[in-house]
Amino acid sequence: MDKEFLKIIKSELDLIETTLKNYLDSQHPFINQVSEYIIFSGGKRIRPLLTVLSAKLFLSEDLDSNYLETIYRTSILFEYLHAATLLHDDVVDSAEFRRGRKAARNIWGNQATILVGDYLYAKALRLASLLENIKIMDVITQTTLLMSEGEVLQLLNLDNFFLTEAQYEEVIFRKTAVLISACCEVGAILGGADERECLLLKDFGKYLGLAFQIVDDLLDYLSEETGKDLGKDFKEGKVTLPVIYALKIASEEEKNTLLNLLKMPDTNKKDFETAKKIIEKNKGFTKSKERAKHYINLAKNCLKNLPNNLYKDLLIFISDYLLERKK
Amino acid sequence: MDKEFLKIIKSELDLIETTLKNYLDSQHPFINQVSEYIIFSGGKRIRPLLTVLSAKLFLSEDLDSNYLETIYRTSILFEYLHAATLLHDDVVDSAEFRRGRKAARNIWGNQATILVGDYLYAKALRLASLLENIKIMDVITQTTLLMSEGEVLQLLNLDNFFLTEAQYEEVIFRKTAVLISACCEVGAILGGADERECLLLKDFGKYLGLAFQIVDDLLDYLSEETGKDLGKDFKEGKVTLPVIYALKIASEEEKNTLLNLLKMPDTNKKDFETAKKIIEKNKGFTKSKERAKHYINLAKNCLKNLPNNLYKDLLIFISDYLLERKK
């Protein structure tokens, strides 16, 4: 069964990939070049995939090809939005690397990176407006507003080593969950779902997004990938859920060691391993994983009373995959 | 008559000022603080003013107060959009000053400035979507896309000392005229204008915007204000219309001197005066002024066949003012 699912997902991803390429159509080659660099840098395409599957969950199989095109075109706007935030994040964080290769700002400089970020953002909104759908525009503008406020909050929290779990969840809600929630809600709207169903998909996306970011933050410590991204949060002194949980029950000595390591401007591999050991010993990783699992369960619960079909199975399959992924 | 006009404009500006303040309503004081700093830094409010007047041009005097509120709320989104581009521009240009005082980035740093710029952009789009008007969303998303591409183009042209007049006009079209055009077109839509009338207001705004930027670039050399902004373009080595015209007829020696001065990383007051003299002698200023006048005439021409009323007179009055202003 998994093999069958993976095959279908693969074919959806191929269509998304083609669509992503087709709509990067600025008349100015430089804009396309920088955009393509960030868009085609090995992203998982989870956002557009969720939009497509959420739409198809409510649609019959024999769809008008024009409407299918509309669905894919809309799905990619979330990838453009996401890419825009990555470009600005990298400038804000002075990031050297992104997904194991040079960050765009490291090639074209901060100036171009800021402005191409603005371009991708504008492009996403432009694609949204082509739908001429007031409800979708409402979801998307609300989403971008929440996200942009969240980015500022995250910046203000940068040196807050005593971030609470609630504050952390507020940050990841705005940073990740709001957008993934919008992907699913907009998919449902495109699928012609009724209001109750749209709300369920909105919540499904929210819980999935929270779990997704918690797993991401876990993988920053535990990923099997050994790219330059591993330990990025640690190096930047960013407090994430594993640290928050560990600090709760760690001894005074462990707490001080962990906090000092996080505050250090330059850390090496040994420091990283020391931090990992303290977090591990104080259940930071297992509890984070449990929390992610809790959200995945809430997400799957939202789907319970929705039509039973292939696309529902796929959404559940993806939820489980996002929890168990190793990179 | 002028006094009467100024009085009416003043009362419109007061309403705009209040509305600008009311909608800066982020729950996070820091976001409001940075936003207010850039929004309330002595801007002329020409964009919201044009939206309000363009709407009223087509409306009867006894307007529903809710609808009036909608018009003012919509007008300010253009000021938020404009402020967002200023924040990002200042980061991109490493600007120290803006409108005679410290640039926001000089107080809160590049990071916060980029992110609050994103916030103001999102806020503007959010205000637009509240109208639930597909046509207006279409205008605004098209506008922001053109503008953001233009910003990248401008960056790529930074070291182009042989900018042609056509290239210059493309830059100022995207940088300034597109947004001012949108202000007027959206105003007309809000006023219930028909398609032909909306198009006329769109063109009116475009020509007015082109003239506005040409005058702005002229004032960079000739302003009576002696703030730290004077000669900003010159210091940055930015080629604007006065330089383009002057280079056309200058002697080989003058050409070299002017280009060398523009290319110099550090220039003093004497250099600035030398450049001004070369531009003046080679008609750079007078021809630029003529060009601005040409666009103001085109702008006023667009209004010819529209209803004759106070608001048309005010739009003409403002067009003349923008041409003759000294700062």
UniProtKB/TrEMBL annotation, chains A, B:
Swiss-Prot/TrEMBL GO biological process terms: isoprenoid biosynthetic process
CC cofactor: Mg(2+)
Keyword terms of this UniProt record: Magnesium, Metal-binding, Transferase
Coiled coil: none
Molecular function GO terms recorded: metal ion binding; prenyltransferase activity
Domain of life: Bacteria
InterPro entries assigned to the protein according to its UniProt record, in alphabetical order: Isoprenoid_synthase_dom_sf, Polyprenyl_synt, Polyprenyl_synt_CS
UniProt keyword Transferase present: yes
Pfam families found in the cross-reference section: polyprenyl_synt
Family recorded in the similarity comment: Belongs to the FPP/GGPP synthase family.
Name of the protein described by the UniProt record: Polyprenyl synthetase family protein
